[in-house]
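Researcher: For the record, we're logging two predictions in this thread. I'll number them. Prediction 1 follows.
Model: Prediction 1, sequence and structure:
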Amino acid sequence: MGKMTYANGDIYDGKWNLDKWHGEGKYSWANGASYDGCWVLGQKHGTGVFTEAGIAKKGKWRFDVLIKWI
């Protein structure tokens, strides 16, 4: 578990493996968007909630690609 704040203002808070986001965690972009869910070696993978402009959508992801909104 750990939290990283990047120079551009983005923040990741969650589990890590091999210096990559892995397991449950939340990534928040400096523009206000965020993804809270499952990660595999630095990529969105599994179920998670993507929030942008105050609208939250739950989806299924496979290696950083949205498969479907659920």
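Researcher: Logged. Prediction 2.
Model: Prediction 2, sequence and structure:
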Amino acid sequence: MTTYSFQIILNEDEVTVVQAALEHYKAFCLQQASGEGGAPYESHCFVIDAVLWRLMANPQMTSTSSFCWSS
């Protein structure tokens, strides 16, 4: 299997959308795997779990808000 390396920077909203999409696809794959879909969907579930784990494995803050409340 050929391996590629990608670097992608996502903001919080983008991470939320990617997580939701992957979890939605995983639910679909689990449903397909329990029916006639079989093997490809089972392996997709393992890949989705790996991607979700890596998505949150090492987050780094790249900016902060400079907004502050004054009394």
